[in-house]
Design goal:
Elements lengths: L1 H5 L11 H8 L5 E5 L5 H14 L8 E5 L2 H15 L7 E4 H12 L10 E2 L2 H15 L8 H13 L9 H4 L7 H14 L2 E2 L1 H14 L1 H10 L2 E4 L7 H11 L5 E5 L13 H5 L1 H4 L4 E5 L7 H11 L20 E8 H17 L7 E5 L5 H11 L3 E3 L8 H14 L4 H7 L9 H14 L3 H8 L7 H21 L4 H11 L2 H7 L5 H15 L5 H10 L12 E5 H4 L4 E6 L10 H23 L2 E15 L2 E4 L4 H4 L6 E3 L8 H20 L3 H13 L16 E4 L3 E9 L2 E6 L3 E6 L3 E2 L2
Parallel strand pairs: 1-7, 1-8, 2-3, 2-6, 4-5, 6-7, 9-14, 9-16, 10-12, 10-13, 11-12, 13-14
Antiparallel strand pairs: 14-15, 17-18, 17-21, 18-19, 19-20
Helix pairs in contact: 2-3, 3-4, 5-10, 6-7, 6-9, 10-11, 10-12, 15-28, 16-17, 18-19, 20-21, 21-22, 22-23, 28-31
The protein binds a DNA duplex through helix 4, helix 5, helix 10, helix 20 and helix 27.
DNA sequence: CGACTTACTGTTTTT
DNA sequence: CAGTAAGTCG
C-alpha cells in the first residue's frame, strides 16, 4: 500500500486509455464492459482485479473471477500475480465449471452425492443414455443418444431440472419420453456418484435455492464478482452469478455481444443484451479502440458485423495505418484453394516470416484435412488445434483403468475396459454381471466379485473375471504405496493394455503408444491421482503452446481470443459458411451467429487477411458447386482487393458468376437483382432458399463465353459441370456458373 | 466370441 | 470419401 502512495500511477493503471481506465477504476456496482475485439480486454480485467486488491476495496479471497476456459483462467492468474504478487493465489479464480465443482464437492451430500463424485464427459454421457434408452425401448436410430444428450444438456444450460420440464416443450422427442429419460438419467448419475458438466452448475443452483444458509455464507464471503466473456454465459451460469451477487450487485461483466458464437451450446446473448435492465444502476463502458488490426481489416470486420440487427453496437477504431487491403480470392475447387494458400505460406517462409504468426481458420473441423494433406506434401510445418488429447480412445481407456481403481463404483469405467484388451468376455457374460448388479443393487465390479464365487459363469469367463478383479485389488493396494505415475505405468503394463497396442499392426498404433507415454508424463505435474483425474475431467485442453515455426490450422470457434499477423479464411461459400445447417435450424438468428463468426475470424488478423472461396467443392465425396458466401458481398469494396493473380477465377469472373447465379434465382421468382436479394436474404434463408446451380440454362452445342478461356461451344453437360471446346483454349471442364451466353 | 462385411451418415464443442 | 455402428458368419 505504501508503494501506491509513493507512486502516483501504479503499473496496472499506466498506459490505459480513458475507457479502459474508467472500467478499471469503477469498482462498485454493476458494470458492463463492452469490449470489442482487440481492445485490451484481458488487460482491463487483470488491472481491475489488481485495483480491487490494491485499493483494499476487497480482499483477494472476497473476489470471484470467472472465465470460460482454463487457458483464460491461467493467463489471468499469471498476470494478476505479476501485478499484486502471491496474494493472487487467494482469489477465487477459475472457470465456471471448476469453481462450481469446488463448491459442489463441499456440499455434495445436499444433493445426494459424495464429495468424491466423478465428473463425466460427453462421451460417458452418451454411453449412459444409450443404456437407459435400451432399457426404455427408445429407438436409437430415430433418436440418437447424442442428440437426446444434447437436449438434456440444453435444459441443464437453462437451469431446468427434469421436474421443471414442460411436457409440451418436450414434444414428441423420443416419443414424448425425454422428460422421463432425463429423470432416469439423473437418478442413474446419483447412483453412480457422478455428475455431468451441466450438473456442476445445476446442483449448485439447487443447493443455493434450497439451503439459504449455504448461499448466505458464499454471499458473505464474496463481495466482488468479475466475469469474462459474458456473452457466452448460459441461463444456469447467469442464475448462479445472480444468486452469488445477492443485493451487493458488485458485478463486473466483460464481453462482446458481437463475438457470441456459442448460442448452439446454450449461450444466451440475451444475458449481455439485457445487462443494463437486469442490474439497475448499471454502468456501461465501451472499449472501442482496437490495438490489434490495421485499418482495412478493421473496416472489413465492422462492415460485416454492422449487418446484424441484434447488437448493442460499437464502433471500433484504430490509430494504426490502413495497412494492406483484405484480399479476396476465388478458386476452382478446394484442392486449388489449398494449393494456393500453401504456396503463399511457403513463399512467406522464404521471407523469414515466423509461421506461428500464420493461421488458417475454417468453419468446420473436416475442412482442415485438405490443408493438412497439402502441407504434408510440401513439407510445411503445421499444427492442428482441436484434436483433443484427452478424448482419444487410448487415453480414455487408460483413464478408465485409473478411475476404476480409485472409484470401484464407476460402472462406466468398468464397462469401458472390462474387455479391453480382449479377455474373452462377451455380451453373455456381461449380461450375467448386469443381472447380478441389478439384483443386489451393487456396482458392476462388486457384482463380479460375487459372481466369481458361484457357478453362474462359464469357466473361461469365470477365470477371466477372477484375474481381472485380482488385478484391480492389487493395483488399488499399490495405489497407496507408490507414486501415481509409477502406478499408471504398472497398470498399463500389467493389464496388457500397452501390449495390445504393441501387437497392433495398424499405422496409428505407434502414435497411440506415444500418447500413453505422454499421459504418464503429464501425471507428474500433479501431486495425487485424485488431483490428476479432476484435472482431466475439467481441463480438457492439451498442449496448446504455439511452437515456433508452425502454421496453425483450426476452426473459427477455436480461434476466438487468439491473434495472428496473417490469417487465411478459406471456404467462404454459401452452405459451408454460413453453414446451411445452422440456417436450417436457427434461421435468421443462426445467420447472425454465423456472421459473428465471420467477424471473429476477420478480427483475428493483425496485418494480412486473405478470404477465399471455391466454386466447386467435394463434400461427403460428392461434387457440389457453390456460390461465394454472402459475407463476401458484405465486405466493403474500398477495403478489399479481389485478387486477380492468385486464383483461377478473376475478380470479374467472381462478380459475373455471382450475378449470373442470382439472376437465375431471380427468374425463379425470388426477386430481381442481388441488392433486393440482400434484403430478402434472411427470409430466403429461413425458407430454405438454395441457389440454382444446375446448368439448366445450357444445352449441348450452345455458344458460351468464359472470362478466362473466351468463346466456345458446349460439348457435354454433367450436372453443373460443362465440357466446353473453346476456340482458343481447347477443351476444358468448367463450372456452369462461370460461363454465360454471349 | 470375434473377425469380417455392409449400411449409413455426416458442424461448430470453452467445460 | 471415410469413419462408425450394427449385422453376419465361422
Amino acid at each position: 500500500m505504501t508503494e501506491i502512495l509513493e507512486k502516483p500511477v501504479p503499473i496496472w493503471l499506466d498506459g490505459l486509455n480513458a475507457a479502459q481506465s474508467e472500467a478499471v477504476t469503477t469498482l462498485d456496482g454493476p458494470l458492463l464492459v463492452l469490449s470489442g475485439a482487440g481492445t485490451g480486454k484481458t488487460r482491463v480485467l487483470t488491472s481491475r482485479l489488481a485495483e480491487l486488491v490494491a485499493t483494499n476495496t476487497a480482499k483477494p479471497w472476497n473476489i470471484l473471477a470467472v472465465t470460460f476456459t482454463n487457458k483464460a483462467a491461467r493467463e489471468m492468474k499469471v498476470r494478476v500475480a505479476q501485478l499484486v504478487g502471491p496474494m493472487a493465489e487467494q482469489v477465487w479464480l477459475g472457470t465456471f465449471h471448476a469453481l462450481a465443482a469446488r463448491m459442489l464437492r463441499r456440499h455434495a451430500e445436499l444433493v445426494g452425492l459424495k464429495s468424491d463424485f466423478t465428473i463425466l464427459d460427453a462421451d460417458d454421457q452418451t454411453r449412459l443414455l444409450k443404456q437407459l434408452m435400451a432399457a426404455d425401448d427408445i429407438d436409437p436410430k430415430r433418436w440418437p443418444a447424442r442428440m437426446l444428450g444434447g437436449v438434456i444438456s440444453r435444459w441443464k444450460d437453462r437451469g431446468l431440472c427434469a421436474e421443471q420440464i414442460d411436457l409440451a416443450e418436450a414434444g414428441d422427442i423420443a416419443n414424448g419420453r425425454v422428460r422421463q429419460l432425463y429423470q432416469s438419467y439423473q437418478n442413474r448419475l446419483i447412483a453412480l456418484n457422478a455428475v455431468d458438466f451441466g450438473d456442476l452448475l445445476l446442483h449448485m443452483l439447487t443447493i443455493f435455492t434450497k439451503h439459504h444458509d449455504v448461499l448466505a455464507d458464499y454471499q458473505a464471503r464474496i463481495t466482488h464478482i468479475m466475469v469474462d466473456e459474458y456473452q457466452d454465459t448460459n441461463v444456469a451460469q447467469y442464475l448462479w452469478l445472480r444468486l452469488l451477487t445477492g443485493n451487493r450487485n458488485n458485478l463486473c461483466c466483460v464481453g462482446d455481444d458481437d463475438q457470441s458464437i456459442y448460442g448452439w451450446r446454450g449461450a444466451e446473448v440475451g444475458n449481455i443484451l439485457r445487462f443494463e435492465s437486469d442490474f439497475s444502476g448499471a454502468k456501461t463502458v465501451r472499449l472501442e479502440e482496437n490495438y490489434r488490426s490495421t485499418g482495412h481489416i478493421l473496416a472489413a470486420a465492422s462492415n460485416v458485423i454492422s449487418r446484424n440487427e441484434t447488437r448493442l453496437g460499437k464502433t471500433l477504431y484504430t490509430a494504426a495505418d490502413n495497412g494492406e487491403k483484405v484480399r479476396v480470392n476465388g478458386y476452382w475447387d478446394g484442392a486449388d484453394e489449398a494449393r494456393s494458400i500453401s504456396s503463399q505460406i511457403e513463399s512467406m517462409l522464404a521471407d523469414q516470416v515466423d509461421l506461428s504468426q500464420v493461421a488458417v481458420l475454417v468453419r468446420a473441423g473436416f475442412q482442415t484435412r485438405e490443408f493438412e494433406e497439402r502441407f504434408i506434401s510440401i513439407g510445411l510445418p503445421y499444427r492442428v488445434v482441436g484434436a483433443k488429447f484427452y478424448e482419444r480412445s487410448e487415453i480414455r481407456d487408460a483413464i478408465a483403468y485409473l478411475r476404476l481403481i480409485t472409484q470401484p463404483a464407476d460402472d462406466l469405467a468398468f464397462e469401458r475396459i472390462i474387455n479391453v484388451p480382449k479377455r474373452g468376455l462377451g455380451t453373455a457374460s456381461l449380461q450375467a454381471v448386469h443381472m447380478q448388479a441389478r439384483a443386489s443393487a451393487k456396482p458392476l465390479l462388486a457384482a463380479v466379485m460375487d459372481l466369481v464365487d458361484t457357478d453362474e459363469l462359464r469357466p473361461a469367463a469365470r477365470q477371466a473375471f477372477s484375474s481381472f478383479i485380482n488385478d484391480i485389488r492389487r493395483w488399488r493396494d499399490q495405489a497407496g504405496k507408490m507414486h501415481h505415475t509409477d502406478l499408471a505405468r504398472l497398470v498399463l503394463d500389467e493389464s496388457g493394455y500397452t501390449q495390445m497396442w504393441q501387437l497392433d499392426k495398424s499405422p496409428d498404433a505407434p502414435g497411440r503408444l506415444e500418447n500413453l507415454t505422454e499421459l504418464v508424463n503429464a501425471m507428474q505435474d500433479f501431486d495425487s491421482l485424485q488431483g490428476f483425474l479432476e484435472h482431466i475431467a475439467l481441463v480438457m485442453d492439451g498442449d496448446t503452446e504455439n511452437q515456433q515455426g508452425e502454421v496453425t490450422l483450426m476452426t473459427l470457434h477455436a480461434a476466438k481470443g487468439l491473434e495472428f499477423d496473417t490469417v487465411f479464411l478459406p471456404g467462404w461459400e454459401e452452405g459451408v459458411f454460413p453453414s446451411q445447417r445452422t440456417i436450417d435450424e436457427s434461421g435468421a438468428v443462426g445467420l447472425e451467429e454465423e456472421r459473428r463468426l465471420a467477424y471473429v475470424g476477420i478480427t483475428r488478423a493483425r496485418k494480412n487477411l486473405f478470404i477465399s472461396f471455391a466454386s466447386s467443392r467435394r463434400i461427403h465425396g460428392q461434387w457440389q458447386s457453390a456460390i461465394p458466401s454472402r459475407f463476401i458481398q458484405e465486405l466493403p469494396p474500398e477495403h478489399i482487393i479481389e485478387d486477380l493473380a492468385q486464383g483461377m477465377a478473376s475478380g470479374l469472373e467472381f462478380s459475373r458468376a455471382t450475378s449470373v447465379r442470382l439472376d437465375v434465382a431471380a427468374t425463379n421468382g425470388y426477386g430481381p437483382g442481388w441488392r433486393r436479394m440482400a434484403a430478402r436474404r434472411e427470409e430466403n434463408a429461413v425458407n430454405g432458399w438454395k441457389p440454382d446451380n444446375n446448368a439448366t440454362d445450357f444445352a449441348n452445342g450452345d455458344r458460351v463465353f468464359h472470362q478466362k478461356f473466351g468463346m466456345g461451344n458446349i460439348r457435354s453437360i454433367d450436372g453443373d459441370k460443362l465440357e466446353i471446346a473453346f476456340d482458343k483454349a481447347g477443351h476444358k471442364k468448367v463450372v456452369a456458373g462461370f460461363v454465360s451466353k454471349p
